[in-house]
Design brief:
Ligand-binding sensor domain-containing protein; seven-stranded antiparallel beta sheet; alpha+beta; transmembrane helix; Phosphatase 2c, domain 1; Y_Y_Y; 10 helices; Immunoglobulin-like; about 35% strand; five-stranded mixed beta sheet; coiled coil; phosphoprotein; disordered N terminus
């Protein structure tokens, strides 16, 4: 019995009983194994000061009503949303801060307030005030706290807050604001047994229990008396039935009404009917599990069992029904083990995650959701797996499990829980043929066959090996990759370069091969199509073979000796893949296969057609390795980004290391399905085992909260928490705002996804993937509603989400009162002006009357002169009438000409607008650029109706090409040049297949010269070009420029890749020098911001003094924008251009393209370039 007990407690051999660990995880991958086996890899995620926690000793942890975690440490209180911490500390002189930064206890009450017990007072935090209210011991006030050193907090069902201190128990009534004290009295046995209170708990019968330094107490709240349960020294009382240690640190009840008591000497079970204790040590002796030493924390699991945090023995899981324990301890060699063995507090959150507070190791997270995949890894123990690089698996139903690695063959004995290693010994011919094991097979005659890099090895009953070498007719012919047993004891052997061999198992003694099948040097339809064999699969329906080769899928009928090859046809999308690495058969009889780079493929045997499933259908990675079909008609495939499940409804669900996989990368050939339907996949860091029928998705719908509001990239502090606010009012000058938000799902929070919209500004939801902020610029005055929704890691959405009203009042000059006041002022001014005007008119009238009288006399004298002149005027009138008739005819002719000119002008304008539509239609849709560069923009502002600047984007094979082109001239001439450039670029890339930037510029130059028939010094029509080519597989960027450079902003510094001083289409004699375009190859880094542009922005006049914007100013402006999101940069460019231009006319077309690299990998091999300071320095940039 004692020996079995010791086995269970060995930290390095078996930290837990594997059966119960797997049962806890909801997975029975090893349910048939006994208790004394190697512990599976259980993952604890460590969250400590490196992730932002204020201090590494966690004293208390709770979850509030909104879903935030509150974590108390010895230096500060932390609020955690799964991404970042907000830290609260005591601030000298600030009465609304914590009374002390050393946190001892936490409580979330029924109103959602957070109670914080410290070593110097009690605090309560309210979201409504966004501050802390303090409570202290007051010597002259009996209604105050009994002591400032808070040890525990609890709220009973009636709403009373109970506070344990180092000197007494206290209750607090929130309505009256008064404290009541309960202190120990030596002469009164009905008082609490000791003033030092550790824990408080209310059971299902609403009885209050208090754990103290002097034992356990049950309180009668009506009489305010206590019943004490303490260590009994009376020899007549069995120590098994009483507490053996008076310090009671924690209490919890189970569904059966049992009270579990954690003390300084272990765990006790209290029977309330008999009021007797059972020592858990004696209770568990019969099972061989011993729990001992100090218990610091207790909490119930989602299954109703117990989690137990101890002082030095780690974390323990106790199954209440069976009495079995699973023990988790810190393992120095395993970074995913428990961070430390000293557990101070525990919390099972609403999502089922267990949070473990540790002393000196921060907070550990145990998430059952990511434990569904059992992981087996190598360790320094001699009886452990020899290597994490797993290449072959075979699990026997009533025997051991065999694992092939790069360091030999491992046999896992399910009765002992130990591995036995078989390795190659060059000095011993009876050892394994080679340490690189690629396939394992248990034949029907019970013989174990192993395929290695040096042939086939057979395991003999005495533990030795007999090795079989294949016919050495080809290099690497002994490198065996697959084994398959066919009919009548035939062993089919597939090799890496020697084709397929047929071997009769009964003829092992003679080592004779019946047939060797190799590819023919000449085309032969009845020969295997490749000598490189990856997989041989026996079809149980007709005993034929499906063979995966380097040249595709092959079907072979051993009875007729006939091959049928399915060759890839690039012109036929329903033809087979180039290379097939893994093959399986589903329940319907269809054949599935993997092909690296093209995803997975289903072969319909009736139609003889191949159907592909790639990234377009939801497969996260197309570099596929192994494929298996489970019993629920799902297909499982391993690749370079984890595992993917293709359900029978055609949808993919992807799993990665965050879900508990050994790594995101797996190995070819390393997969197996055992008789129970469990699946095995091997990778570069171990082996994963799981039952696909037990895999459960995370159904927890996460709360969505707003965490911050920013103006001009600075957080706005409100007088209450933003979650308590219904609306935010801004000034009309607040033209750059941002919301930050979070989904409080702590299971793989990096997989949470978000969508938001600002009504009525946004018509549709904006899906931002894992981006947790939304920014807006230059919003018009009005009322808006911001909405955000989010999903958890398994794509279950909280459609309600969070909302916030946004109010932007108009400026005073656009308000109704100002307009009314202005109108009233105008009316008054009109009335006053009218009165003054009448007075002036009357004065002028009197003055005019005098002048009229004098003038009348003068006119009378001159009347005679007028009569005399009248006759002369009549004669002149006749002549004038004649001239008027001639002028009328001339005017009519002019009107007719004007109509003709106007008609021609309208036709010309119609033609130009039609040209504009043509030009816009040929420009690539900006969505094409954003589909490859999500963080990108195109700022395009033509001077006239049509433009001489244009942007160009295309895809060719694995290359993405982006260019910014500035043609000579603007308007119609420039537009004609842009059409020439656009058509020639498409012809060079799409028809000629050229993707090298320098070669493209060279061909474009020749084409433009030829089209325009330019040569000599007068050939000055052409274009300036900045051209980038992104090679997706390698992550390289190649660049060439004709007068237009490439700018990269990295970490706030602008790097300039200079262009050649020659343009495209400019005659060589006009340049006075030979034309040459320099190639550059650039490795970018994650976060780099790339800019391509014409000279329209920098040449624009304005700024109030009619001067050019200039390149230097443009560099500084882009450097200041580069950290902003692409949409914010776009709006900022527009605002800057309008502001600079002012009243000046636009002088040229403007084009700016910006793209942010969201994937790592860009270095620049040596070339000097200019930084903002004007200094030159060496940066890595490579000339081709």
């Amino acid at each position: 019995m004692r020996g079995k007990l010791n086995v269970c407690l060995k930290a390095q051999i078996a930290l837990a009983v594997l059966w119960w660990a797997v049962t806890l995880q909801g997975n029975t991958a090893f349910a048939q194994l006994p208790a004394a086996v190697q512990q599976p890899h259980v993952r604890f995620e460590s969250i400590s000061i490196e992730q932002g926690l204020s201090q590494s000793s966690v004293q208390a942890v709770v979850q509030d009503q909104r879903g935030f975690l509150w974590i108390g440490t010895k230096d500060g209180l932390n609020r955690y949303d799964g991404y970042a911490f907000e830290v609260f500390r005591s601030v000298r002189g600030d009465s609304f801060s914590l009374s002390s930064s050393r946190i001892e206890a936490l409580l979330v009450d029924q109103d959602g307030d957070i109670w914080v017990g410290t070593n110097d007072g009690l605090n309560v935090f309210s979201y409504r005030s966004r501050g802390f209210k303090r409570f202290y011991y007051q010597p002259n006030n009996s209604n105050s706290l009994s002591n400032n050193s808070i040890t525990s907090l609890f709220q009973d069902k009636s709403g009373v807050i109970w506070i344990g201190t180092q000197k007494g128990l206290n209750s607090y009534n929130k309505k009256t604001g008064a404290f009541s004290r309960y202190l120990a009295a030596k002469d009164n046995p009905t008082t609490i047994s000791h003033d030092y209170v550790y824990t408080i708990y209310e059971d299902k019968l609403q009885q209050l229990w208090v754990g103290t330094r002097g034992g356990l107490n049950r309180m009668n709240r009506d009489t305010k008396t206590f019943v004490n349960y303490a260590r009994v020294s009376d020899a007549t009382t069995s120590p098994v039935l009483t507490l053996s240690f008076n310090e009671v640190f924690c209490l919890v009840g189970d569904d059966n009404g049992t009270l579990w008591v954690g003390t300084g000497s272990g765990l006790y079970k209290f029977d309330r009917a008999t009021e007797l204790f059972q020592n858990a040590e004696n209770t568990l002796m019969a099972t061989g599990n011993l729990i001992q030493k100090q218990v610091n924390a207790l909490c119930r699991s989602t299954e109703g069992n117990l989690w137990i945090g101890t002082e030095n023995e780690g974390l323990k899981y106790y199954n209440v029904k069976t009495g079995e324990f699973t023990i988790y301890r810190h393992d120095v060699g395993d970074p995913e083990s428990l961070g430390r063995n000293q557990v101070s507090c525990l919390l099972v959150a609403r999502s089922g995650i267990l949070w473990v507070g540790l002393q000196g190791a921060g907070l550990n997270k145990y998430d059952p959701q990511i434990q569904q995949f059992v992981t087996i890894r190598s360790s320094p123990r001699p009886d452990a797996l020899s290597s994490n690089y797993v290449t072959a698996i075979y699990d026997e139903e009533n025997g051991p499990m065999w694992i092939g690695t790069s360091e030999g063959l491992n046999m896992y004995d399910k009765t002992t829980g130990k591995f036995k290693l078989f390795r190659h010994n060059p000095a011993d011919q009876l050892t394994l043929g080679d340490d690189n094991v690629y396939c394992i097979l248990r034949a029907s005659d019970s013989t174990l066959w192993v395929g290695t890099d040096r042939g086939v090895s057979r395991l003999n009953p005495d533990g030795s090996f007999s090795n079989l070498n294949l016919p050495a007719l080809a290099p690497n012919g002994n490198q065996v990759r697959t084994l398959c047993e066919g009919e009548k004891g035939v062993l089919w052997i597939g090799t890496y370069a020697g084709g397929m061999s047929k071997f009769n198992i009964a003829d092992f003694a003679t080592a004779s091969f019946d047939t060797v099948y190799r590819a023919s040097l000449l085309p032969d339809a009845n020969a295997i199509q490749s000598n490189r064999i990856y997989k041989i699969l026996l079809d149980p329906a007709d005993s034929t073979l499906w063979i995966g080769t380097q040249s595709g899928l092959t079907h072979f009928n051993p009875r007729t000796n006939v091959f049928k090859n399915y060759v890839h046809d690039p012109q036929n999308s329903l033809s087979g893949p180039d290379a097939v690495y893994s093959v399986c058969r589903d329940l319907k009889g269809d054949i599935w296969m993997t092909s690296y780079g093209t995803g997975i493929c289903r072969f319909d045997r009736k139609e003889e057609k191949f159907y592909y499933f790639t990234a377009k259908e939801g497969l996260i990675n197309q570099g596929t390795y192994c494929i298996l079909a489970d019993r629920d008609s799902s297909i499982w495939v391993s690749h370079n980004q984890g595992l993917s499940q293709l359900s029978s409804n055609g949808t993919f669900h992807n799993y990665d290391v965050a879900d508990g996989l050994q790594s995101n990368e797996f190995n070819t050939g390393a997969c197996f399905q055992n008789a129970k339907g469990q699946l095995f996949f091997g990778g570069i860091k171990g082996l994963n085992i799981f039952d696909p029928s037990k895999i459960q998705r995370n159904m927890y719908i996460p709360p969505v909260v707003l965490t911050a509001f920013k103006k001009f990239d600075r957080k706005v502090e409100f007088d209450r928490d933003i979650s308590e606010m219904e609306a935010i009012e801004l000034k009309h000058t607040d033209n750059y705002i941002a919301f930050e938000f979070a989904a409080l799902n702590f299971t793989s929070p990096e997989k949470n996804r978000y969508a938001y919209k600002l009504e009525p500004f946004d018509e549709d939801w904006i899906y931002s993937d894992d981006r947790r902020y939304a920014s807006y610029t230059n919003l018009d005055p009005g009322k808006y509603t911001f909405r955000v929704k989010a999903s958890n890691n398994d794509n279950f959405w909280n459609e309600v989400g969070a909302t916030m009203q946004l109010v932007i009042p108009p400026p005073f000059y656009r308000t109704g009162w100002f307009r009314g006041l202005t109108l009233s002022g105008l009316v008054v001014m009109v009335i006053l002006g009218y009165g003054v005007r009448i007075q002036r008119i009357q004065a002028q009238k009197r003055k005019l009357e005098g002048l009229v009288e004098a003038r009348t006399r003068e006119l009378h004298l001159k009347n005679q002169q007028v009569l005399e002149q009248s006759a002369q005027i009549k004669r002149e009138k006749q002549r004038t009438d004649q001239i008027n008739e001639e002028l009328a005819m001339t005017v009519e002719e002019v009107k007719q000409k004007n109509l003709e000119i106007e008609d021609k002008n309208n036709k010309i304008l119609d033609s130009i607008y039609y040209a504009q539509r043509i030009q816009r239609s040929i420009l690539p849709a900006r969505q094409r650029l954003s589909s490859h560069f999500p963080e990108s923009f195109v700022f395009f502002k033509p001077k006239d109706i049509v433009s001489g600047d244009f942007y160009w984007f295309t895809e060719k094979n694995d290359h993405l090409l982006v260019a910014a082109i500035d043609c000579t001239g603007h308007g119609v001439p420039g537009a004609f040049m842009s059409l020439i450039g656009y058509s020639q670029l498409n012809k060079i890339v799409d028809e000629m297949g050229i993707v090298e930037p320098t070669e493209i510029l060279k061909r474009l130059d020749e084409a433009v010269l030829n089209v325009l028939q330019q040569n000599g010094r007068q050939a000055r029509d052409g274009m300036d070009v900045a051209l980038c080519s992104f090679h997706r597989p390698s992550g390289k960027l190649r660049f060439a420029g004709a007068h237009r450079p490439l700018w990269i902003v990295r970490d706030g510094e602008l790097i300039e890749i200079a262009a050649d001083r020659c343009g495209v289409g400019i005659g060589q004699l006009a340049l006075n020098s030979p034309k040459q375009f320099t190639p550059y190859e650039i490795d970018l880094e994650k976060g780099d911001m790339i800019y391509l542009f014409s000279d329209g922005f920098t040449d624009q006049f304005g700024g109030g003094s009619d001067r050019k914007y200039m390149v230097k100013r443009f560099k500084k402006f882009l450097s200041s924008l580069a950290h902003l999101p692409a949409d914010a940069q776009y709006h900022a460019l527009g605002e800057e251009f309008r502001s600079w231009m002012g009243g000046s006319p636009q002088i040229d077309d403007v084009l700016v393209i910006g793209m942010r690299m969201t994937e790592p990998g860009l270095k620049i091999t040596p070339l000097q370039h200019k930084a903002l300071s004007g200094m030159k320095r060496e940066v890595p940039l490579r000339r081709l």
